[in-house]
Q: What sequence folds into this?
């Protein structure tokens, strides 16, 4: 069997085994995801592979995405072994993760729109089930996720139909459609909805924060944080450059830039005021996707490279963050920021991994998040040559980055710094291994950006990139290290001893022993800034949640129709009328029947016989029925 | 055995088994089950016996019984679904004092359905239609409660009114052509442009449309489907409205009257209206079975929309959806029946967390929900896909949008069912529920498996089962030449 088919059918087949042999599910999932990773490496090294069955094709871009997906799945399954141990319905959990991996392989390698659509839609089912595995409130979150993702998939069908009619082929990239005719634009937006729902671009983002409230951390790390981003942005890139032609300075490019900027800013503002670690991270999962959309939306090779690089980076650091969050939850039993604190001492490895990933997402050089953002900024500056609006997009991107940093200062302080009486110890090695590996990858991808990821992951997809800025990661890292050392030197040589700690004076009151300043509430000030206050208030009323708005519209129109339907004159009011009326009704029916018979009589002898036979049979049936049905009411 | 007379067996077998079942009393279920099994095997066995894309005609007093691709699809759908419903009912009907009466009526219904699908003559079509409909009225009232009787009488009055319209339509055809024979009438109507022909077409649309519960003619369906015992709701929704409504309508409109663009447009508009209004009405329901009933209206809309398009892809989608909908909607009604039997309620708000106590019911209803909502790789995905792409291909973007919207709202509505009935916290009073009788579980599991297999192996099903039906319908009045071939 073809190796590409193995990547799909091995995990899906193994998932059935997981459903049946629940005890062995974890081990089986680990082995299968390791095999998936090996297959991914083999496909990646092979470069080009084809499978006539299902019309699959691996080329460097899709191979690198599958490699990333299988790598993350493997790490997260490893993490889950201890993390999920003892939970209910583990067979289902591992089974759905494997289905996700297999379906993602199918979506990455599909060259045929129908194959793509099938696997794309299939991904919704394990997503729904995995989110639904959470606590009691998970049903609603799972429903919301599948509604948004599945609804967008249904729209994609129209897009695919239109592309088929316009080009005569169902091959992805069979023909390049310029976005000029209205039909082409409709097709583009229909397909775009599928990509955006998966990736969580506003306004189709609502399912990610909802899922974060109840789904287990590894599920969040796998699906909304990494795999769904990889898939969504992969499709976006294919759509913008293989199926349709998005040119710089076009209306569609403007739309993508605006939507991307809006996503960055709105989601980061939402993140700033969250009090729950997982939910805060979920808002960032939405915000980061804005950068990718902005990068790809520029229509410039540099921007596309930046967007795609950011996609890989985001998968790495966002999974890492969610996994660290999970580790914290695992040891402390809560993700409420105001109840956590001081974990840096007790969970040093988790803290280190979290800190690196937090720096990376905030775009601190020389980590990978900075490099990809830097590429995106460069492409926006290059856009300045042809479009005046570039400054808005650049401002949104940079301001978003600053707010990201601000909110991670808040988390880092609230969770890991400060005083705490918590006696949590470092987690089991299978739990810290995944975040630490990912954090190490953040550093490697940052320092060796040009040598490794850009050369092997991005260049094969977008070709050579003309850089305009100057950035030497190693030199910069060296300078940063030097300045840090100088700072440390000053710290130790200076008069640190002169610092004294005093008990807090609170108007003469004794502070409770557990009393600590978490600093979380400090960020609530953001809520009170004049124009923002209005936005937040509207947001809390769910004015920006596309899903809630549509649901409200649906409920309203449904209630209206139900009322209308009840008014359609039914038979019931007639039945409640008096007996005389019923007799009249029956009389009318019989008269009509006679009329028909008359019609029959005037039109031929043989047919009369047939008609009479028919009527006799009807009568016989009535009689039989009457005999059979006569005694029901008494029973 | 290879003579066309074997077609007679398809009707005679259940007709003869019906009184026998009545005599057998308690073990009537076995006879009914065996009859359904025999019918299913017979119709499957007939598949290779019927020349591909050709017809098998029982020629006694003119072409009396005709088996072509379309009939074959409908018969397999009806008998296969009925088989599983009877297996389920064998356990479900245990609570009645006289279950044999139930199965006897069921077999009469089945005889009527088979007869409608095979009839080569308008009057015989009407007779069998009445047989099926009468059994249905009685079965709806079977439990004898106030709601059941009211629903049954409502169904009877509306249904008989529709029958009358159909009969008048038949009379008009007779007036125009001098024959009730489908093939003969079709031949005589070629090139006829009388106003009576249009009138007949409209009468048939209204009459068969009522039987199919298309949107403005739907008001009988929600009550009847809610009140009927679960296996009967499953039969009505899964099979009856399609055979009596969609099949008969398509047969008469396309193969006899020959179809025309305005008629197609009317069908598509009715279909789109049913899709949207049906699903919106369904969304507002909290009674499990009533919700399913409104979804039947909506799903019938997909079938009619696809058939109304008339393009090969549209017909393919519509007819494939007919087959698929029979499977998953029957399954959903059986699920609802299982839940009602175990918990004693149909109100979704009173359920919750039933997944923990009714695992088979929950799992099969999840598969059926995914199927009806059109998620891949289940069967409903492919048929809806064909219908939507066919709409786009025909340039009917608005109809395509209606179908897509309907699909999204269907998903919403079934996720609501899942959320309220099966997910969430288990209510205290359901703490010691047990899952249903194994026969019911087997029937539901088999239907769920069929939904999945049909989805995975859809090229086989569309190629061997649906395609001949598409060819038969697309052939239009060529149908007549095929049947009368030897006699011309």
A:
């Amino acid at each position: 069997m073809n190796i590409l088919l193995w990547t799909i059918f091995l995990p899906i087949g193994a998932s059935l085994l997981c459903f049946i042999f629940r005890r062995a599910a974890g081990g089986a999932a680990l082995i299968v995801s390791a095999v998936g990773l090996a297959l991914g490496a083999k496909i990646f090294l092979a470069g080009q592979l084809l499978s006539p069955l299902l019309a699959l094709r691996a080329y460097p871009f899709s191979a690198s995405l599958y490699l990333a997906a299988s790598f993350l799945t493997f790490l997260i399954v490893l993490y889950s072994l201890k993390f999920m141990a003892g939970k209910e319905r583990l067979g289902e959990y591992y089974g759905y993760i494997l289905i996700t991996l297999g379906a993602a392989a199918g979506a990455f390698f599909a060259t045929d729109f129908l194959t793509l659509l099938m696997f794309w839609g299939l991904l919704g089912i394990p997503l729904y089930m995995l989110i639904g595995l959470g606590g009691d409130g998970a049903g609603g979150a799972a429903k919301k996720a599948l509604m948004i993702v599945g609804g967008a998939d249904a729209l994609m069908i129209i897009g695919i139909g239109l592309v088929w009619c316009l080009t005569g082929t169902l091959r992805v990239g069979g023909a390049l459609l310029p976005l000029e005719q209205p039909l082409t634009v409709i097709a583009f937006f229909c397909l775009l909805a599928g990509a955006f729902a998966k990736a969580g671009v506003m306004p189709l983002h609502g399912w990610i924060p909802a899922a974060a409230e109840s789904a287990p951390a590894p599920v969040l790390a796998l699906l909304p944080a990494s795999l769904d981003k990889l898939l969504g942005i992969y499709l976006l890139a294919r759509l913008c450059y293989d199926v349709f032609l998005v040119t710089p300075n076009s209306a569609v490019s403007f739309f993508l830039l605006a939507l991307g900027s809006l996503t960055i800013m709105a989601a980061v503002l939402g993140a700033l005021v969250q009090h729950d670690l997982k939910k805060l991270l979920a808002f960032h999962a939405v915000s980061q996707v804005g950068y990718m959309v902005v990068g790809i939306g520029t229509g410039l090779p540099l921007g596309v490279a930046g967007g795609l690089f950011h996609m890989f980076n985001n998968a790495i650091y966002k999974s890492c963050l969610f996994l660290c969050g999970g580790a914290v939850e695992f040891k402390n039993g809560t993700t409420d920021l105001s109840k956590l604190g001081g974990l840096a001492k007790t969970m040093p490895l988790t803290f280190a991994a979290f800190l690196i990933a937090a720096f990376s997402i905030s775009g601190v050089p020389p980590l990978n998040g900075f490099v990809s953002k830097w590429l995106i900024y460069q492409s926006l500056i290059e856009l300045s040559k042809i479009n005046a609006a570039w400054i808005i997009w650049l401002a949104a991107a940079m301001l978003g980055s600053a707010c990201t940093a601000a909110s991670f200062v808040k988390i880092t302080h609230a969770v890991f710094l400060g005083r705490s009486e918590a006696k949590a110890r470092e987690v089991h090695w299978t739990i810290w291994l995944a975040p630490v590996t990912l954090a190490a990858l953040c550093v490697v991808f940052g320092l060796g950006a040009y040598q490794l990821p850009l050369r092997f992951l991005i260049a094969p997809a977008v070709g050579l990139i003309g850089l305009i800025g100057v950035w030497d990661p190693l030199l910069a890292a060296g300078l940063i290290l030097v300045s840090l050392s100088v700072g440390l030197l000053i710290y130790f040589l200076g008069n640190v001893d002169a610092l004294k700690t005093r008990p807090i004076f609170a108007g003469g009151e004794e502070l409770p022993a557990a009393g600590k300043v978490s600093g979380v509430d400090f960020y609530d000030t953001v809520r009170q800034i004049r124009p923002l206050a209005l936005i937040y208030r509207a947001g809390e009323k769910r004015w920006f949640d596309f899903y809630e708005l549509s649901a409200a519209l649906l409920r309203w129109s449904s209630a209206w129709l139900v009322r209308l339907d009840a008014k359609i004159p039914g038979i019931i009011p007639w039945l409640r009328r008096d007996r005389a009326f019923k007799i009249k009704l029956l009389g009318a029916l019989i008269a009509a029947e006679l009329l028909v018979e008359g019609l029959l009589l005037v039109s031929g002898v043989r047919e009369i016989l047939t008609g009479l036979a028919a009527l006799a049979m009807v009568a016989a049936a009535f009689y039989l029925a009457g005999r059979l049905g006569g005694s029901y009411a008494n029973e | 055995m290879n003579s066309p007379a074997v077609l007679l067996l398809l009707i005679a077998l259940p007709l003869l088994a019906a009184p026998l079942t009545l005599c057998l009393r308690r073990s009537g279920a076995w006879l009914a089950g065996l009859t359904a099994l025999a019918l299913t095997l017979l119709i499957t066995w007939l598949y290779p016996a019927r020349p591909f894309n050709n017809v098998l005609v029982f020629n006694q007093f003119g072409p009396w019984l005709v088996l072509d691709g379309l009939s074959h699809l409908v018969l397999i759908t009806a008998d296969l679904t009925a088989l599983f419903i009877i297996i389920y009912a064998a356990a479900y009907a245990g609570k009645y004092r006289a279950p044999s009466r139930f199965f006897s009526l069921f077999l009469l219904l089945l005889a009527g359905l088979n007869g409608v699908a095979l009839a080569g003559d308008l009057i015989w079509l009407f007779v069998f239609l009445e047989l099926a409909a009468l059994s249905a009225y009685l079965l709806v009232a079977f439990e004898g409660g106030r709601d059941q009787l009211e629903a049954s009488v409502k169904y009877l009055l509306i249904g008989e009114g529709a029958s009358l319209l159909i009969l008048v339509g038949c009379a008009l055809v007779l007036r125009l052509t001098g024959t009730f024979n489908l093939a003969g009438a079709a031949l005589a109507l070629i090139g006829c442009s009388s106003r009576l022909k249009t009138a007949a077409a409209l009468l048939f649309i209204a009459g068969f449309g009522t039987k199919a519960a298309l949107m403005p003619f739907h008001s009988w369906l929600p009550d009847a489907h809610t009140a009927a015992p679960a296996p009967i709701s499953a039969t009505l929704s899964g099979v009856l409205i399609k055979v009596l409504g969609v099949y008969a309508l398509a047969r008469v409109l396309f193969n006899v009257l020959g179809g025309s663009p305005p008629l197609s447009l009317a069908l598509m508009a009715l279909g789109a209206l049913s899709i949207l209004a049906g699903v919106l009405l369904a969304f507002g329901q909290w009674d499990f079975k009533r919700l399913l009933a409104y979804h039947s209206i909506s799903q019938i809309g997909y079938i009619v929309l696809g058939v109304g398009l008339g393009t090969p892809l549209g017909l393919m989608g519509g007819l494939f959806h007919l087959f698929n909908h029979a499977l998953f909607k029957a399954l959903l009604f059986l699920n609802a029946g299982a839940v009602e039997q175990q918990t004693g309620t149909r109100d979704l708000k009173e359920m919750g967390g039933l997944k923990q106590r009714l695992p088979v019911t929950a799992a099969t209803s999840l598969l059926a929900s995914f199927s009806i909502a059109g998620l891949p790789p289940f069967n409903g995905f492919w048929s809806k896909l064909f219908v939507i792409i066919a709409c786009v291909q025909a340039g009917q973007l608005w109809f395509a949008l209606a179908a897509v919207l309907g699909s999204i709202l269907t998903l919403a509505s079934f996720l609501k069912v899942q959320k309220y009935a099966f997910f969430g916290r288990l209510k205290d009073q359901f703490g010691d529920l047990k899952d249903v009788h194994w026969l019911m579980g087997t029937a539901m599991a088999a239907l769920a498996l069929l939904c999945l297999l049909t989805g995975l192996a859809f090229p086989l099903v569309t190629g061997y089962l649906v395609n001949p039906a598409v060819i038969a319908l697309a052939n239009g009045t060529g149908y007549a030449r095929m049947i009368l071939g030897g006699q011309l």
Notes: Chain B has a mean pLDDT of 85. The CA atoms of residues 71 and 117 of chain B lie 5 Å apart. The longest strand of chain B covers residues 63-67.
